[in-house]
Design a protein that fits this description.
The structure holds two protein chains of two kinds. Chain A is mainly β. Chain A is built from three helices and nine strands, in the order H-E-H-E-E-H-E-E-E-E-E-E. Chain A folds into two domains: 82 residues, Aspartate carbamoyltransferase regulatory subunit, N-terminal domain (Alpha-Beta Plaits, 2-Layer Sandwich); 51 residues, SH3 type barrels (Roll). In chain A, a hairpin with a 2-residue loop joins strand 7 and strand 8. Classes of the chains: A mainly beta, B alpha/beta.
Chain lengths: 152, 303
């Protein structure tokens, strides 16, 4: 609770909470926050009982679709989405792993077509024993969770 | 994915594969071929050099009366001027009924297939897939054993990077095989393929040596152990002669045993094996022409 007071409260919008502090910059990239035209607030290194340090993103007057939001689960499966109306949380949901993901991540294989021509990446999401891996649609190589890199 | 393009062997069902193998057999048994491809122009785009694959495709097309356009290395095309793969494929699609492509970049054939309505045959995309090699391997196995079912396969050499090995493993997995993998520790079959076999409930064994156990084999499939796969050249020198198949080693093997190799061979099969009736690698290369004739007809819906 203390963390939310530090970052300005929003009247309406979406709050992405319980992000592990070290994941914040990757998450900012994949939700493309630079394209939002309303106010947004980012808090980093806030105290968290669960993680020690957490991060939070608040986006005013926007309610991105869960398809867009669920990309976050590839980086941080514990993130929680709060929908805010009149300063109150009206809905709370956990992010869920999508079955496929396009565009946002790089394929680990330097010889993959997506790293050599102007081709968007496309992956099947494989969740085995809690480890999230991406299988490239084009070259079949697996990009492991520890190697996930956001495509610029 | 469009039409009947062949990008990975797993794109085709068992039925598709059997249909192609049956047709290949028909072509092989009737050497006087009809001009089935007379009205077709087929593009052969080889962005990197190849001997067997390109020539056997072109031979297959010409035996059936088709016409071939294309290039045998990227330097002979607009790629040398910086043209993207997309532009090359979309242009060539206008000139041909089918595109056969080999490209050094992995996933290039899958991408090409997605951007054009002209069917694509992947003739090798880097270290990724080489499905027509797999078809001719299946054809060779079925032809020599009379079946694909319940066979004992010894696969020898570079099992880590060998794309033909991985495709063969996937394709044969539908036919209840027993796999014996023989390789240096550095070039063992990757874990993802072991998981695949475990998930399918198939038996497999790993060996460090090519030894008397091959007496149980129906097929020995040998691949090249390449020097460049070893970061330490001393390690290569230590293992390079461990995986050489010699004629003497075939003495107590099964009568139906055949030795296969996708070629080119360097020294992993001694030349004294060549005259042994169990050596089958040159016939295997010949089978590639029939398998490719059948595949082209299958894709174009001719037979």
């Amino acid at each position: 609770m203390k963390g939310e007071l530090i970052v300005k409260a929003i009247e309406n919008g979406t709050v992405i909470d319980h992000i592990k502090a070290e994941n914040i910059f990757k998450i900012i990239s994949i939700i493309e926050i630079q394209d939002f035209d309303t106010q947004f607030f980012i808090g980093g290194n806030l105290d968290s009982k669960k993680y020690g340090k957490k991060a939070i993103i608040k986006i005013a007057d926007k309610f991105p679709s869960m398809d867009d939001i669920n990309r976050i689960a590839l980086i941080d499966s514990n993130a929680v989405i709060n929908i805010i109306h009149d300063f109150k949380v009206v809905e709370k949901k956990k992010v869920e792993l999508p079955e496929t993901i396009t565009t946002y991540f790089k394929c680990i294989n330097p010889k993959c077509i997506t790293n050599n021509e102007n081709v968007e990446t496309k992956f099947k999401v494989i969740n085995k024993d809690g480890n999230v891996n991406l299988k490239c649609y084009y070259c079949d190589k697996i990009t492991g969770h520890n190697n996930l890199e956001v495509k610029k | 994915m469009n039409k009947k393009s062949l990008i990975s062997i797993t794109d085709y069902s068992k039925e598709d594969i059997f249909k192609i193998l049956d047709l290949a057999e028909e072509f092989q048994n009737n050497p006087k071929h009809e001009k089935l491809l007379e009205n077709f122009v087929i593009a052969s785009l080889f962005f990197e050099p190849s001997t067997r694959t390109r020539l056997s495709f072109e031979s297959a097309i010409q035996k059936l009366g088709g016409k071939v356009v294309g290039f045998s290395e990227a330097s002979n095309s607009s790629v040398a001027k910086g043209e993207s793969l997309k532009d090359t494929i979309l242009t060539v699609s206008n000139y041909s009924d089918l595109i056969i492509m080999r490209h050094p970049i992995e996933g290039s054939a899958r991408y090409a297939c997605d951007i054009t309505s002209t069917p694509i045959i992947n003739a090798g995309d880097g270290a990724n897939q080489h499905p027509t090699q797999c078809l001719l391997d299946l054809y060779s196995i079925r032809k020599t054993q009379g079946t694909l079912e319940n066979l004992n396969l010894y696969i020898v050499g570079d099992l880590k990077y060998g794309r033909t090995v991985h495709s063969l493993l996937m394709a044969m997995s539908d036919f209840n095989p027993t796999f014996n993998f023989v390789s240096p520790v550095q070039l063992r079959i990757p874990q993802e393929y072991k998981n695949f076999l475990n998930d399918k409930g198939l038996d497999f064994y790993e060996h460090d040596q090519l030894d008397e156990n091959i007496k149980y084999a129906d097929i020995i499939y040998v691949t090249r152990v390449q020097r460049e796969r070893f970061s330490d050249p001393v390690e290569y020198e230590k293992v390079k002669n461990t995986y050489v198949l010699k004629n003497k080693m075939l003495e107590n093997t099964k009568d139906n045993l055949k030795v296969l190799h996708p070629l080119p061979r360097v020294n992993e099969i001694d030349t004294d094996v060549d005259d042994n009736p169990k050596a089958y690698y040159f016939q295997q290369a010949e089978n590639g022409v029939y398998a490719r004739m059948a595949l082209i007809c299958h894709i174009l819906g001719i037979k």
